[in-house]
Write a structure and sequence with these properties.
By secondary structure, the chain is an alpha/beta fold. 39% of the residues lie in helices and 17% in strands. Strands 1, 2, 3, 4, 5, 6, 7, 8 and 9 form a 9-stranded mixed beta sheet that branches. The longest helix is centred in the middle third of the chain and has 27 residues. The relative contact order is 0.19. Bound molecules: adenosine monophosphate, fe (iii) ion (FE) (2 copies) and zinc ion.
Length: 287
């Protein structure tokens, strides 16, 4: 069994539609794939409809959270939530609020760049985004590539869109303990995404990871492209000692990133553990 549990589609900042994601997962030799778009479950039904016989789909979402960093400050962390009830009121409301604020925020970032003379049109950018899709910096990065300002999404991030740049506007963050509580109340399972990805920016300390485990965090995403070997060793020690779920995933975003589907994978018994802990939704198997 080859399993990849962290993937994005066009309903957030990926470039494959949910159908294309499921088809690409099959082509990549994956037996199970997750759809974990930022702040939305809008891709779940389309992905489910695209399953081939026997192909498995783990439905989830990724939430951007604020957490104590363990050094007296705060930092941003990402929480993967799997198999929660997509109709749970608190989750639906949190997602909707975040998506709405993300649109205002991306418009603000594009406006700052336009004021500085960059050839981006904030209104046009927002108009191009499909319906209720979750707006993210990769959308602005793509616009900058199309306008010839940069050669790649990656260059847009490293030169213009990173968190310390003057164009940066923070996006809404859910307090992590609220996010864990909300997901569990909706029958879901929580996994800390790329917790020690130091190259992305400030991360939490190991002590904070333990506190999140105390608060009910189910698992840790350990094999992730942004995790160096020492980060994996440290996280694995915590997960094993605390009996946590361990996942490995590509964090696939289509052509917005260079990582391939299945570049990192999860052990079958860990997928089973996620499914057995969840009560909000089921693992889908194509008929
Ligand atoms: P946002 O959620 O709008 O703040 O944007 C963060 C998203 O940008 C992440 O979820 C990644 O998908 C993406 N991202 C971050 N860094 C890079 C990068 N260097 N290249 C491509 N995408 C990136
Ligand atoms: Fe993303
Ligand atoms: Fe993430
Ligand atoms: Zn992600």
């Amino acid at each position: 069994m080859r399993i990849d549990l962290h993937c994005h589609s066009t309903v957030s900042d990926g470039t494959d539609t949910p159908t294309e994601l499921v088809t690409a997962a099959r082509a990549a030799g994956l037996d199970a794939v997750a759809i974990t778009d930022h702040d939305t479950t809008a891709g779940w039904d389309e992905a489910a409809a695209a399953l081939a016989p026997g192909q498995r789909l783990l439905r989830g979402a990724e939430l951007t959270c604020a957490s104590p960093d363990g050094r007296g400050g705060q930092c941003t962390i990402h929480l993967l939530a799997y198999l929660f009830d997509p109709h749970a009121e608190a989750v639906v409301a949190e997602h909707a609020k975040t998506r709405a604020e993300r649109r205002v925020r991306l418009h603000a970032m594009a406006s700052r760049m336009a004021e500085d003379g960059y050839p981006v049109d904030a209104d046009a950018l927002m108009a191009e985004l499909p319906g209720d899709a979750t707006a993210g910096r990769p959308h602005l990065a793509q616009a900058l590539v199309r306008a010839g300002v940069v050669d790649s999404v990656d260059q847009a991030f490293s030169e213009l869109l990173h968190g310390r740049n003057r164009f940066y506007v923070p996006s809404r963050r859910t307090p992590v303990l609220d996010a864990i509580r909300m997901t569990k109340a909706a029958g879901g399972v929580t996994v800390l995404a790329h917790g020690f990805a130091h190259r992305r920016g400030p991360t939490v300390t190991a002590e904070v990871v333990e506190e999140l485990a105390d608060a009910g965090l189910d698992g840790l995403e350990i094999d992730h492209p942004d995790h160096e070997p020492p980060a994996r060793v440290q996280l694995r020690e915590i997960a094993n000692r605390r009996g946590m779920v361990i996942t490995g995933s590509s964090d696939y975003h289509g052509t917005n990133k260079t990582i391939r589907l299945g570049a990192e994978t999860t052990a079958p018994e860990m997928l089973d553990e996620i499914v057995s802990r969840a009560t909000g939704a089921e693992l889908l198997v194509g008929a």
